[in-house]
Amino acid sequence: MQPEVLSGLIGFGGALVGGASSFGGVWLTLSHQRKQAREARLLEIGQEAADKALNELITLGEFLESVRGEVAAMRTDESAEYLDTVFGHMERVQRAVARIPDRELRTRMRDLLSVMRKFRAAGVRHLFAVSWLAELADELTELLSAYIRSDPLPPLSERTESKRQRAIQHELAQRRRFE
């Protein structure tokens, strides 16, 4: 083979390798930028959703403080008007939390909202139910606040854990009663 052809082939091969590596570098850069943009967007969505849920919980807590005296003597098996407002706030919290990308937070929030719905386990009077709901709203507020600050999620308080157990026991007792 003539030296000119050999030198041309080597130059052509070098150009192909250079072009391929340049293309690969651009592809990797774009892929990395796309991943970073997606993560930033998820973080932004999560922060907005957490802010919305937190505002709902704060409003719910303030509402529950105003309710305490009105329903103190009512039995929990009686329907009380305040529950419509409470469940409305809880539904908006649940919808907002569904958009948060942190799976652990979503699961814990969903579990605590479920315990809130079992407010009848608190006792026979709505006074106890209002206290139950307010304490769980505070626990949810603490969870969301930690998430917004990027702190580790705090463990459940002993009071909340005991509420979970009481809700389970109450639900079992209700099932036995209807069987």
The major beta sheet can be summarized as:
none
- What is the overall silhouette? rod-shaped
Helix content range:
over 70%
Measured distance between first and last alpha carbons? 94 Å
Task: State the helix count.
Answer: 5
Percentage of residues in DSSP E strands? under 5%
Low-confidence stretches: none
Order of helices and strands: HHHHH
In round numbers, the mean pLDDT is 87
Task: Tell how many strands the DSSP assignment holds.
Answer: 0
What's the alpha carbon Rg, rounded to whole Å?
A: 28 Å
Structural class: mainly alpha
Give an account of the 3D structure.
The chain has helices at residues 3-67, 82-97, 103-117, 126-148, 158-178. It has five helices and no strands. Helix 1 (3-67) packs antiparallel against helix 4 (126-148), helix 2 packs antiparallel against helix 3 (103-117) and helix 3 (103-117) runs antiparallel to helix 4. The longest helix has 65 residues, at 3-67. It is rod-shaped. It is 78% helix and 0% strand. It has 179 residues and is mainly α. The termini are far apart.
Provide key terms for this protein.
179 residues; mainly alpha; 5 helices; rod-shaped
Question: How are the SSEs placed, and which strands pair?
Answer:
Layout: H1 3-67, H2 82-97, H3 103-117, H4 126-148, H5 158-178
Helix pairs in contact: 1-2, 1-4, 2-3, 3-4
Question: How would you briefly describe this protein structure?
Answer:
By secondary structure, this protein is mostly helical.
